[in-house]
Amino acid sequence: MTAAPARATIGAVVLIVTLAAAVVWLQVYRDARFHLAEPAQQVLYVRSPAMMQRLGLSFDAVLADLYWIRAIQYYGGTRLSDTAEKHYELLYPLLELATSLDPQFNVAYRFGAFFLSEPAPGGANHPELAIQLLERGIAANPTRWEYPYDAGFVFYRQADYRQAAEWFRRAADVAGAPPWLRPLAAVTLATGGDTQSSRRLWQNMLATADEDWLRRSAEHRLQQLDAIDTIQQLEAVTAEYRRRHGGPPPSWEALIRDGGLRHVPIDISGRPFVLDPDDGSVTISSDSSLWPLPTERAP
Amino acid sequence: MDAIRIEGLTKHYSVGFWRPRRYTALDHLTLRVAEREVFGFLGPNGAGKTTTLKLLMQLMFPSEGTAEILGKPVGDVSVRRRIGYLPEHPYFYENLTAEELLSYFASLFGYHGQERAQRVSRLLDDVGLGAERRFQLRKYSKGMLQRVGLAQALINDPELVFLDEPMSGLDPIGRAQVRDLILTLRDRGVTVFFSSHILSDAEAICSRVGILAAGKLAAAGSLTEIVPFKIHGWDLVVGGAPQALLDELTGGGATVTRISDDRYRLLLSDAAAPDAIVGRVSAAGGTIVSLNPLRKTLEDFFMAQVGQTAARHFD
Amino acid sequence: MRAVLLVARHVFKDSVRDKVLYAIVAFALVLMATSFLIGQLTAGQDVKIIKDLGLAAMSLFGLFIALFIGIGLVAREIDRRSIYAVLAKPIRRHEFIVGKYLGLVATLAINLIVMTAAYYVVLAYMRWTLSPAALAGQPPATDPRLLIGVAMIGAELALVTAVALFWSTFSSSALLSAALTAGLWIAGQFGSDLRNLGQVVKSPVAAGVGRALYYLLPNFAAFDVKAQVVHGLPIGAAYIATTLLYGIAYAAMLIAAAVMIFSRRDFK
Prior knowledge:
The complex is a heterotrimer.
Chain A: H1 3-33, H2 39-42, H3 49-55, H4 60-80, H5 91-101, H6 106-117, H7 127-140, H8 146-157, H9 161-173, H10 181-191, H11 195-208, H12 212-245, H13 252-258, E1 274-275, E2 282-283
Antiparallel strand pairs in A: 1-2
Helix pairs in contact in A: 3-5, 4-5, 5-6, 5-7, 6-7, 6-8, 7-8, 8-9, 9-10, 11-12
Chain B: E1 2-15, E2 21-34, E3 38-42, H1 49-56, E4 64-69, E5 72-73, E6 83-86, H2 98-108, H3 113-126, H4 142-154, E7 160-164, H5 172-188, E8 191-196, H6 199-205, E9 208-213, E10 216-222, H7 223-226, E11 231-239, H8 243-251, E12 255-260, E13 263-269, H9 274-283, E14 287-295, H10 298-308
Parallel strand pairs in B: 3-8, 3-9, 6-7, 7-8
Antiparallel strand pairs in B: 1-2, 1-4, 4-5, 9-10, 11-13, 11-14, 12-13
Helix pairs in contact in B: 2-3, 3-4
Chain C: H1 2-16, H2 19-35, H3 46-79, H4 82-87, H5 93-129, H6 132-135, H7 146-170, H8 174-187, H9 191-195, H10 197-200, H11 204-216, H12 226-230, H13 237-263
Helix pairs in contact in C: 1-5, 2-3, 2-5, 3-5, 3-7, 3-8, 5-7, 5-13, 7-8, 7-13
């Protein structure tokens, strides 16, 4: 008979589909109800690079890639999360593992150097870890000038111009290093800290960056420096207003009516600058893409 | 020259891991097989027939004793050009076709090109494999594998062929074909040494037999030597005989068994006169279905021999 | 010699058709093909990661293939008695084993070639679709130096096959042989740890044992040049030559031992 088997088949299919739907729904329900943090983010099963090298058998490079991917996702996830205080505690261990498994993992060193030393909320604010990572990179790849250069950069941002210059000099000593490193070392020693040399540094970084994210970061920084310059100019205008009227301008419109400005100043992200009517100081809007600006002294 | 000469061939195994005991699979076998003979190597399962064949093919090494094939000691590679071997339960490379397998084996004998292809084709025809020869061996039934096995045993036109249970796995038609094949080989002058536990096959085709039981050779010789050609009774099947006659014959010492409605089998002793009894049945209105002489068969002899031999002994 | 090549040819024909091999290779190919999907995750490291994944896949799946064919085929052959008919032919046992090994290595080579071709197709696709900026600062996507890595993987796997063949000539269990071979491969990755055991463990006996094991066990880690070829770093021709010679010598030793054992084996 063909009728009975056909019915049985349909019945079986319906049952399976129902169960599949139930399985999916139960997962969704469970995840929604019991807010579990992404386990991969928070738990690093193996912390020791030496152990990981042994466990990896001959697949070190792939494991290094895996840890690199996790590092990126961890960084991105933390950066975009809702928590006010962003800690990047796992960033260094992940990058340390990646670079232990693959000592030539160039991008891991450079990414680590940049974002480990970057102040909150964009980075871990641990410049000493950045230096530690870079020193390992230098030990494994002594022919790469980029690592001592990055180290100098880290110190520059900490406003330790003497150390920065020393590292730039070391970078310049590496065979094949670009010619602008030696004058950079000298300039840093002489005038480190002013926006001119900072700008130059960032422009160099932009020119030599071989990674997208590095390039974008350098562009961002340069835009921030431009914004700082603009703010200085705007504050000069408000000071002039104060001198002539005896008090700071109450608003941009007042300044425009007064003739000091032609239109409301906006920054590169399209947000207007914020004028503080109490003392005439100018800042960028907190929802500008350039916020927060680095302080003048330590870019 | 003897085709096969075995002297005191013995094989011991060690059985058991913790307290190994010695198990004797073959106990001082001594045997000769003449050229052009069809020799049946008989015995119950586990008697040591396959062990003997493996020792002859040097798939195993003897504990004691020697053996010669075509005058050369076992293991001589040049002799292998002149012999063929069909293993028990043959199994071959699954992913090759029958043609490819035979071609491979033929190449090992040194056949090339056109000659090889023709030889392979002829042999596959002989064993009755048609279009299947192009299918992969994984798809073959047991009977087809047995045929391929036979084909590969004969690929080099051997002078001496060793067949281990050649009828196994075949249906009655297949078995008849194998029997005919062996007879054809005999007619061509090939020496055939085959092992079997099916006695009727042996009776039909062997010139000499050897009976192996529990590792020992119980008997060897021509069929007529082993089984005296002596009639010791009669088997008469009649139909429609009247009960009275049957009762009388039973009284006279015959054993009467009912087969169906009006058919009866009478087992008469050799003293009875079958002609007379046949006449009386006809006169009483019955019919003669069959009349066969009873002779001691190989089976009887076999059972007796095997029963006599002591069970396998363990040291 | 002729018999050896005949056996090799037919072993190759038989094993290369095995369906399990198709499955393994297909799996590796699928892995490679989908690896470029992970580009989203990698912050510009696509090419490096695909190169790494491809080599790792070839290494791992190649290992499975070597294990499977080395053990599955020999042990199965003995278990199923296909070997009886062959050995009754005018062929010596050592010719059979050597021919078997060559046939298995040929099968392995074909599978590796297929995987390498797919690998380069994926890499060429990457080169075609990615912007020059994304490709800058790294060795080329279709770097021919990767072939050195593949060749070393092939040599490593040929040695694994020899190990597998060796175990299966006298072990009756395919599973046991597979486990022993896999175990030796793992142990062979820890060469440097064994050699330097003396630095970690303060017992001179242990250090001596460690060193002895290092020299005794096949040093598979020496064949691993994957990281170097991916980064485009130079590998000395002398290093490669020495390592390859080591592999050939070790494999030859194993085959000789296998021949010795196989020649004396009773097939019960």
